[in-house]
Amino acid sequence: MTGTPGRPSGGTDVTCADRSTRAAVATMYRLTAGHRGAIAVATVLTLVGSGLGLAQPLVARQVVDATGRGHVIWPSLVLLGALFLVEAAAGAGGRFLLERMGEGVVRQLRHGLVGRLLRLEMREYDRHRDGDLVSRVTADTTLLREVVSQALVDMVTGSLVAAGAIVLMAWLDLLLLLLVAATVAAAAVIVASLLAGIRSASEHMQNSVGAIAADLERALGSLPMVRVHRAEEREAAGIGTRVDAAYGAGVRTAKLASVMSSAVELAVQGSFLIVLVVGGLRVSGHSGSLGDLVAFLLYASYLVLPLSSVFHAVGLVQRGMGAYQRIDEALRLPVEPTGLPASARRPAGPPVTGEHPALALHDVHFAYDPRRPVLRGVTFAVPHRRFVALVGPSGAGKSTVFALVARFYEPDAGAVVFDGRPAAELTRAACRGGIAVVHQNSHVVHGTLRDNIAYAVPEATEEELRRVIELARLEEVVDRLPGGLSAVVGERGSTLSGGERQRIALARALLVRPSLLLLDEPTSHLDSINESALTTVLKDVAQECALLVIAHRLSTVQHADRIVVMRDGRTVAAGCHEELLTRSALYRELAASQMLRSGGDAVPG
C-alpha cells in the first residue's frame, strides 16, 4: 500500500495528544525521508567545523602560556587563523546543504498538498474554508521549512559539540565544570516547563493566520458587494478580530520563547561569571595557570552557541509541530477515487449511443445533510442530440442534479446513467470526459482570453478557437479587447461584463465537443439581443450533442424539445411547452410569471 503523496512513509503517526519532544523530533525526522544523504554530509561538515572550533581554545592556551614565557607565538597564531577559516568554510557548506534540504522537504509537501486539495471530495470544500486550506500550503510549510532545515541538525551537532566542550572542560578543571553544570541544569528545567505552552500557542497562531486568509479571500472575492453595501469597515473589523487573535497567540509564543531564551542566557552568563571569579581566585592562589583559565573561559563561552542552538531547536520543533498538525490534517482529507469500487470492477463493453439516452436519472435521492434531503426521487432522460430544459422554483434541486451528473457527489439512492451505463460502473474521469458544464456564475481565471477559452484544450488550433468564438458570439469581444485573444482579462474576469463571461464559459465548453452539455441559467447575464442569439446557438449545439439546461426565462424554455418540471426535489411533470401549459399547473404558474416579467402576452389557461 502506497503512502499519501507529500506525506512521509513508514513509522507511526504522531497525534495531537502525543506532545513529547521525542515524538515531535521523530515526526520531523520522518519528513526528511529521501534527504538523509544531504543531512549526513551536512552533519559531518558541521561537526568538522565544530571540532576545529573546539581545538581553538587549546591553541589559544598555548599562545598565552608561550607569551608568558617569552617564546615565539607566530606558528600558533597562523594555526589559529587556519582553524578559524576552515571552520567557517565547513560551517557554510553544511548550512547550505541543510537549507537546500529544507526547501526540498517543503517542495515535496507543497506538491502533495496542492495535488490533494485539488482532488478533495466536494463535501470537504463545504466543510473547510478555501483561504485556510491555502494557508496550509503557504504559511504552515514555510514555518516547517525552518524546523527541518535547522532544528534537527542543530539538536544533534549542538549536543555533540556541547558534549565535547564539557569533556575538555572536565579535563581542564572539574570543579569549575560542576559549577557550570548546575547553572545549565537550572536553565534546562525552565526550558522543559515551557515547551508545551510554546507548541499550543503556535498552533493557535497558525489557525488564526489561516482564518485571516479565509476571511480576506471571502471579502476580496465579493468586493463589489462589500463596497455597494458600504461594508468595508465591518469586514475590516471582522478580519481585525482574527488579526488580534493571531497577535495574542503570537505574543504568547514570543513571551514563552523570550523567557526560555533569557533563562538560557542567564545560565550561560552566570556560569561565565562564576568561572571568571572562582577561576581568577584559583589562579591568584597559584592553584591553576592563566592559560588553563583562558582556555576554560573560551570553552565556557563556546558552550553558549551549541547549548543555545539545542534549546532553540527544541522550542522550534514544538512550534513546527503546530504547523505540521495542520498540514497532516489536510493530507488526510478524503479525495475523489480515481478507480472503481470493487463491486463495480467488471469488463466494460463499448458505450452504446442511439439505443440509450445520453443521460438518464432513475429515482435519484440525495442529501448534503442526512437530516435535510434535497432530491426525493428524480427521474428523467436526456436523449442524444436533444435539448432538455430543467425548470422549477428556487430550491427545487436543479443545481444539485447538475452536481450529481458532474459526479461532484454520489446519489444516496437511485442511479445516474450515461449512455446506458450506470455512473457507478464508470470512473469519474470517464464520466466527466464526455460532459461540459457552463455555470450560472461563470468561472473566468486570471490570464488571457485565449487561456480561458482553451482552458480544457490548451493545444486547440486557431481554427477550433474561431469556431467556438463564432458559436458563442464572441467576435465583438475579441475585436474590442486590446490584443484580441492575447488580452489579459483580469482577476475573475474583472474587465468583462457578466454576459461576456457567460459567453466565454460557453465557448470553453463547446471547445471540448462534449456528448452532453450542461448549462445553468445560460441567459441570466445576457440582454435580449444576445439572448436571442444564444437561443439560436443552443439549437445549433443540440445538433451535435445532448443539452440539459437549467432555465427560468420562458424564451429559453419554450424552444426545448422536452421540459422537466421539478418541485421540492421531485420531478412532477415533463413534456413540451404546449403540453405542460395544458397539463401542469406549476408550469403554467412559472410560465405566467416569466411572461409578466418579460412583458409578453398572457399565457392561455
Write down the overall geometry: elongated
Biggest sheet: strands, sense, closure?
6 strands, mixed
Task: Write the CATH homologous superfamily of the largest domain.
Answer: ABC transporter type 1, transmembrane domain
- Please name the CATH topology of the largest domain: ABC transporter transmembrane region fold
What is the highest CATH level, the class of the largest domain?
Mainly Alpha
Kindly state the number of beta strands.
Answer: 10
Please indicate the count of domains.
3
**Radius of gyration over C-alpha positions, nearest whole angstrom:** 35 Å
Number of helices: 20
If classified by CATH, what would the architecture of the largest domain be? Up-down Bundle
Q: Classify the beta-strand content into a percent band.
A: 5-15%
Q: How would you state the average pLDDT, rounded?
A: 76
Structural class, from helix and strand content? alpha/beta
One letter per element, helices H and strands E, the order comes to: HHHHHHHHHHEEEHEEHEHHHHEHEHEEHH
